[in-house]
Design brief:
Layout lengths: L1 H12 L1 H19 L5 E3 L10 E6 L4 H10 L19 H5 L4 H5 L1 E5 L6 H20 L2 H8 L9
Antiparallel strand pairs: 1-2, 2-3
Helix pairs in contact: 2-6, 3-6
């Protein structure tokens, strides 16, 4: 009980600085991820939890994305926290107006005060390569490009 009380006291005593640190990392992550073509930030860009970022990527299936991220040591979730572990699309993302396919292909990244800028940089280095790899294998992406709904990769 004493240990729990000490941990709680430490968390409360540093809550404001921990939230500010997590929010700064989150903002850096969001800015970098939004550089990926055909990416959408889910939810309000300003009013959000300090360590929460949720994205959709056109032409990318969520479970494949999670598997490849895991292989790179990046731990993430699909959907919203409300549907963690479920194969159903998040009712929260559907309520935001996302189509079912987009909601099923979403990526949730969560940060806190123990995460580092180097970890965010690593995600920003690996994620675009993984997204590109998955899109190159997906005929849906080719169709989006053909219809002019997504920009083709040019390099």
């Amino acid at each position: 009980i004493r240990g729990m009380a000490a941990a709680l006291r430490k968390a409360v005593d540093h809550m404001d600085e921990n939230m500010a640190r997590a929010a700064a990392l989150r903002d850096k992550l969001i800015a970098g991820v939004l550089q990926i073509p055909a990416c959408r930030l889910n939810g309000d860009a300003e009013r959000r939890l300090p360590g929460n970022a949720n994205f959709c990527f056109a032409g990318v299936e969520g479970e494949s994305l999670l598997l490849l991220l895991d292989m790179k040591g990046i731990y993430a979730s699909a959907g919203s926290a409300c549907t963690a572990g479920s194969l159903e699309p998040s009712h929260v993302l559907l309520a935001l107006g996302l189509p079912k396919a987009a909601a099923q292909g979403s990526l949730r990244l969560t940060l806190d005060e123990v995460n580092t800028e180097e970890e965010v940089d690593y995600v920003l280095e690996q994620l675009p390569c993984i997204i590109r790899h998955l899109r190159e294998m997906n005929p849906t992406w080719e169709e989006l490009v053909r219809r002019g709904e997504a920009a083709p990769y040019t390099d």
